[in-house]
Amino acid sequence: MDDDLVFKAMADPVRRMLLDALFERDGRTLGELETLVNAHVEMTRFGVAKHLRLLEQATLVTTVKQGREKRHFLNVVPIQRIHERWIGKYAERAGIASVLLDLKSRLESPSGQHDTPPDREGDQPRTTEEPP
Question: Which stretches are tagged as biased composition: Basic and acidic residues (predicted)?
Answer without folding.
Answer: 116-132
